[in-house]
Give the backbone structure.
Amino acid sequence: MEQLSIPAASQAKGIITLPGSKSISNRTLLLAALANDVTEIHDLLDSDDTSRMLESLAILGVNFENIAKNTWRVTGCKGNFPNKNADLFLGNAGTAFRPLTATLAFSNGHYHLSGVPRMHERPIGDLVDALRQAGANIEYDANDGFPPLTISPTILDLIQPIQIRGDVSSQFLTALLIALPLSGQKATIEVVGELISKPYIEITLNLMAKFGVQVERQGWQQFMIASDSQYSSPETIFVEGDASSASYFLAAGAIGGDIQVDGLGKNSIQGDVRFADAIELMGGKISYGKNHIQSKKTQRIKAIELDCNHIPDAAMTLAIMALFADGTTTLRNIASWRVKETDRLTAMATELRKVGATVIEGADYLTITPPAQLRPNAVIDTYDDHRMAMCFSLVSLGGVPITINDPKCVNKTFPNYFDEFKKLVS
């Protein structure tokens, strides 16, 4: 297995320009493909996840071209994919797999969707159940409730509201919202239970509006799409820097010095921008510019107890900051970690213990008590999870060397992460 050794460091200083948001990039690619006319997408993330989406759209008959670095011109198919018979491999890209499942269910074709073994362990039953309520014809190829899937043509019926659980993955609701305008029918979605990761739904609604489809909602329980809704190109759209990726550098600034993160502002449409608020709760010094956030070293990182439902991905970085805190930190409402690229609750607890932390893992929470001294030369397993790799790089700022297994797993969202990190720490 490939390994990366990160030397001990004590300072972090400099400016980092973020790659594009994965969540925004893949949503924007799909919406541009479904729209009429041509859309120019600027600052698109270059990563494994976006590559899976681009490959799939090409197989489905969508025309696009790379006209400059991270800039793509997409010719929309007006809600009707030209290829009605396709076999798609989507790796471990949930931001591609879930919305494509829904849109293809409404596309009147024969489709097969599969991924890596871990994707076949990530639940999709609640989305399939919701789509079946609308009349979708979807079959499981192996285990009920999990990919791979086979989708066949059907006649849709949206007279009755579609009910979907909100407490497993917000990607299920995102997938439904993006797909329903393709039906041409009036549609209502009812969320059963508490909706987790609400900021990701706000990203979806914001982008749908930019592509001409307004969704009415009553709180977070009911969403309504008008009949004859259709996507129209905004002509040009810019992808924000990735707020989840910003968390590592903002944390580095709070732990070790002074970091400016470019490509993201306080008014970002991404919920993970509120990670900066969590840093302030821990005593960090945050300031904002028009398109940047600055994080400076604090003399004392405070232990906190926080409901992390609003920042599910960035909350992983708080688990690492807890290693530098003055007491026990508790991160709550993070059950969604269990259905991500790996079971992040168990993975995080296991790896934090390697550096000396005392960790209690609950069904939907972690409590982390830092050691008196971080344990040097820990070898961190990353579980093919990009965020595990990026998070644990921060341990080196505690003055201890650390080794990251399978460092190239960061290709999923931030292929040059370690090169950028190395430039900022010493």
DSSP finds twelve helices and 23 strands in the chain. The chain has a mean pLDDT of 97. The two ends are 26 Å apart (CA to CA). The CA atoms of residues 36 and 78 lie 5 Å apart.
